[in-house]
Design goal:
- By secondary structure, the chain is an alpha/beta fold.
- It has one domain: 3-Layer(aba) Sandwich (Uracil-DNA Glycosylase, subunit E).
- About 45% of the residues lie in helices and about 15% in strands.
- It has ten helices and six strands, in the order αααββααβαβααββαα.
- It has a six-stranded mixed sheet.
- β5 and β6 form a beta hairpin.
- α1 runs antiparallel to α5 and α6 crosses α7.
- The two termini are about 20 Å apart.
Length: about 230
């Protein structure tokens, strides 16, 4: 399928904080063996499962941790599980997930070739937006998650993910599509903010901006010679 067809299909279908310091920034991280990464992910998942006094956990059916290839150099962070995700146990499984798959396909990326997670790991009641307190509570786990995966490109999808990784004093309409250096645990990650698929389903007029972001992501993947 050529890019023009994918482009048309996509357009039809989609209706951390900054840290400043004088200290040197670690831009390289020692590569780890797959077994080490899997063990670290299992330990992180266990830590999240053992969270106490959490309304999200108390109202959800199960923990939703991640999906995709943990060895990928592309990591995508969304908001939190919805009803379908809460039932299946994986992120982006509902309508927003179907749209995400089309978005990725539009730039020749298979969903299973990247790594996907969310800011919060339990479904908020009635699919509401996570509160700032909830975002802060789960951010330490998210930072550890990113550090373990150690991606070359971090895709930040939606306002909740932007708040967790960049801050809450920004507007996604102004920040989207711009490459940023986000520092997590002393290491710099090349990041880009874009709209969440669920938002695009509600606001189809924004799809043209999302397509611009997607093309920018594809361009950067090519520039960095990332194999997916």
């Amino acid at each position: 399928m050529n890019n023009e067809v994918l482009n048309d299909e996509f357009l039809k279908s989609i209706d951390s904080n900054y840290e400043f310091s004088n200290k040197p920034i670690r831009r390289l991280k020692k590569s780890q063996q797959p077994g080490e990464i899997k063990l670290q992910l299992e330990n992180l998942k266990k830590q999240i499962a053992e969270i106490d006094a959490c309304d999200l956990k108390n109202h959800a059916n199960q923990l939703v941790f991640s999906d995709g290839n943990f060895r990928s150099k592309i990591m995508l962070v969304g908001e939190g599980p919805g009803q379908k995700e809460d039932e299946i146990g994986k992120p982006f499984m509902g309508d927003a997930g179907k749209l995400l798959n089309k978005m990725l396909a539009a730039i020749d990326i298979k969903r299973e070739s990247i790594y996907i997670t969310n800011v919060v790991n339990y479904r908020p009641p009635n699919n509401r937006k996570p509160t700032t307190a909830e975002i802060n509570k789960y951010s330490k786990f998210l930072y550890e998650h990113i550090s373990i995966i150690n991606p070359k490109i971090l895709i930040i999808m939606g306002g909740t993910a932007m708040e967790a990784l960049i801050g809450n004093n920004f507007k996604i309409s102004k920040e989207r599509g711009i490459w940023k250096d986000v520092i997590i645990k002393g290491k710099t990650y090349l990041s880009i903010v874009t709209f969440h698929p669920a938002y695009l389903l509600r606001q189809p007029d924004q799809k043209k901006y999302s397509w611009i972001d997607l093309k920018e992501i594809r361009k950067k993947i090519n520039e960095l010679n990332i194999i997916l």
